[in-house]
Specification:
The chain has 135 residues and is mainly alpha-helical. 76% of the residues lie in helices and 0% in strands. The radius of gyration is 16 Å and the shape is globular.
Protein backbone atom coordinates (compact mmCIF):
# COMPACT_ATOMS: atom_id res chain seq x y z
CA UNK A 1 0.00 0.00 0.00
CA UNK A 2 1.39 3.29 -1.14
CA UNK A 3 0.92 6.19 1.28
CA UNK A 4 1.15 8.62 -1.64
CA UNK A 5 -2.23 7.41 -2.93
CA UNK A 6 -4.08 8.40 0.23
CA UNK A 7 -6.62 11.19 0.01
CA UNK A 8 -5.25 13.31 2.85
CA UNK A 9 -8.29 15.60 2.85
CA UNK A 10 -10.49 12.54 3.42
CA UNK A 11 -8.24 11.45 6.30
CA UNK A 12 -8.46 14.89 7.93
CA UNK A 13 -12.24 15.11 7.45
CA UNK A 14 -12.63 11.57 8.82
CA UNK A 15 -10.57 12.55 11.87
CA UNK A 16 -12.72 15.64 12.35
CA UNK A 17 -15.87 13.52 12.05
CA UNK A 18 -14.65 11.28 14.88
CA UNK A 19 -13.88 14.35 16.97
CA UNK A 20 -17.31 15.91 16.27
CA UNK A 21 -19.28 12.69 16.80
CA UNK A 22 -17.56 12.31 20.18
CA UNK A 23 -18.50 15.85 21.12
CA UNK A 24 -22.14 15.17 20.34
CA UNK A 25 -22.16 11.60 21.73
CA UNK A 26 -20.82 12.63 25.14
CA UNK A 27 -22.87 15.84 25.34
CA UNK A 28 -26.10 16.18 27.34
CA UNK A 29 -27.97 15.96 24.01
CA UNK A 30 -27.16 12.24 23.74
CA UNK A 31 -25.31 10.22 26.38
CA UNK A 32 -23.37 12.80 28.40
CA UNK A 33 -25.46 12.59 31.55
CA UNK A 34 -25.52 8.79 31.57
CA UNK A 35 -21.77 8.70 30.82
CA UNK A 36 -21.11 11.07 33.74
CA UNK A 37 -23.22 8.93 36.05
CA UNK A 38 -21.51 5.69 34.96
CA UNK A 39 -18.11 7.30 35.68
CA UNK A 40 -19.21 9.00 38.90
CA UNK A 41 -18.27 12.38 37.40
CA UNK A 42 -19.70 15.68 38.53
CA UNK A 43 -19.71 18.91 36.54
CA UNK A 44 -16.87 20.07 38.78
CA UNK A 45 -14.82 16.96 37.94
CA UNK A 46 -15.10 17.76 34.24
CA UNK A 47 -14.01 21.36 34.75
CA UNK A 48 -10.74 20.19 36.34
CA UNK A 49 -9.33 18.79 33.10
CA UNK A 50 -7.02 20.69 30.78
CA UNK A 51 -9.43 21.08 27.87
CA UNK A 52 -6.79 22.37 25.45
CA UNK A 53 -4.64 19.31 26.02
CA UNK A 54 -7.66 16.99 25.87
CA UNK A 55 -8.88 18.45 22.55
CA UNK A 56 -5.42 18.46 20.93
CA UNK A 57 -4.70 14.87 21.96
CA UNK A 58 -8.20 13.74 20.99
CA UNK A 59 -7.76 15.16 17.50
CA UNK A 60 -4.30 13.59 17.24
CA UNK A 61 -5.70 10.18 18.26
CA UNK A 62 -8.62 10.65 15.84
CA UNK A 63 -6.15 11.41 13.05
CA UNK A 64 -4.15 8.25 13.81
CA UNK A 65 -7.36 6.18 13.71
CA UNK A 66 -8.48 7.77 10.42
CA UNK A 67 -5.02 7.30 8.89
CA UNK A 68 -4.93 3.65 9.98
CA UNK A 69 -8.38 2.99 8.51
CA UNK A 70 -7.40 4.83 5.32
CA UNK A 71 -4.38 2.57 4.94
CA UNK A 72 -6.61 -0.50 5.18
CA UNK A 73 -8.94 1.02 2.59
CA UNK A 74 -6.15 2.29 0.32
CA UNK A 75 -7.24 0.38 -2.74
CA UNK A 76 -8.75 1.63 -6.00
CA UNK A 77 -11.66 -0.80 -5.56
CA UNK A 78 -12.73 0.77 -2.25
CA UNK A 79 -16.24 2.24 -2.34
CA UNK A 80 -18.30 4.19 0.18
CA UNK A 81 -20.24 1.05 1.14
CA UNK A 82 -17.07 -1.01 1.62
CA UNK A 83 -15.57 1.84 3.64
CA UNK A 84 -18.62 1.88 5.93
CA UNK A 85 -18.58 -1.92 6.28
CA UNK A 86 -14.85 -1.94 7.03
CA UNK A 87 -15.43 0.85 9.55
CA UNK A 88 -18.13 -1.22 11.23
CA UNK A 89 -15.95 -4.32 11.31
CA UNK A 90 -13.03 -2.39 12.82
CA UNK A 91 -15.16 -0.32 15.20
CA UNK A 92 -17.43 -3.07 16.45
CA UNK A 93 -15.35 -6.17 15.90
CA UNK A 94 -12.03 -4.89 17.19
CA UNK A 95 -12.49 -1.79 19.31
CA UNK A 96 -15.90 -2.35 20.87
CA UNK A 97 -15.10 -5.95 21.68
CA UNK A 98 -11.85 -4.75 23.28
CA UNK A 99 -13.82 -2.25 25.36
CA UNK A 100 -16.16 -5.04 26.47
CA UNK A 101 -13.26 -7.36 27.29
CA UNK A 102 -11.47 -4.74 29.37
CA UNK A 103 -14.77 -3.62 30.90
CA UNK A 104 -15.41 -7.13 32.22
CA UNK A 105 -12.17 -7.12 34.17
CA UNK A 106 -12.69 -3.56 35.37
CA UNK A 107 -16.22 -4.48 36.50
CA UNK A 108 -17.78 -1.74 34.35
CA UNK A 109 -21.49 -1.70 33.70
CA UNK A 110 -22.99 -2.82 30.42
CA UNK A 111 -24.32 0.72 30.02
CA UNK A 112 -20.78 2.11 30.27
CA UNK A 113 -19.48 -0.34 27.67
CA UNK A 114 -22.41 0.29 25.30
CA UNK A 115 -21.89 4.06 25.45
CA UNK A 116 -18.21 3.78 24.53
CA UNK A 117 -18.67 0.91 22.08
CA UNK A 118 -21.53 2.68 20.34
CA UNK A 119 -19.48 5.84 19.91
CA UNK A 120 -16.52 3.96 18.47
CA UNK A 121 -18.65 1.87 16.13
CA UNK A 122 -20.57 4.87 14.75
CA UNK A 123 -17.35 6.89 14.42
CA UNK A 124 -15.55 4.16 12.50
CA UNK A 125 -18.53 3.65 10.17
CA UNK A 126 -18.59 7.37 9.38
CA UNK A 127 -14.81 7.54 8.99
CA UNK A 128 -14.89 4.53 6.64
CA UNK A 129 -17.76 6.05 4.69
CA UNK A 130 -15.87 9.34 4.23
CA UNK A 131 -12.63 7.60 3.23
CA UNK A 132 -14.44 5.22 0.86
CA UNK A 133 -16.51 8.00 -0.68
CA UNK A 134 -13.45 10.14 -1.39
CA UNK A 135 -11.28 7.41 -2.95
Amino acid sequence: MDISTLNWLAVIVAALSNFLIGGLWYSPVLFGKVWMKENNFSEDDLKKGNMGKIFVLTFLFSFVMAFNLAMFLNDAKTTASWGAIAGFLAGFGWVTMSIFTIGQFERKSTKYMLIHGGYVTISFVVMGLIIGLWR
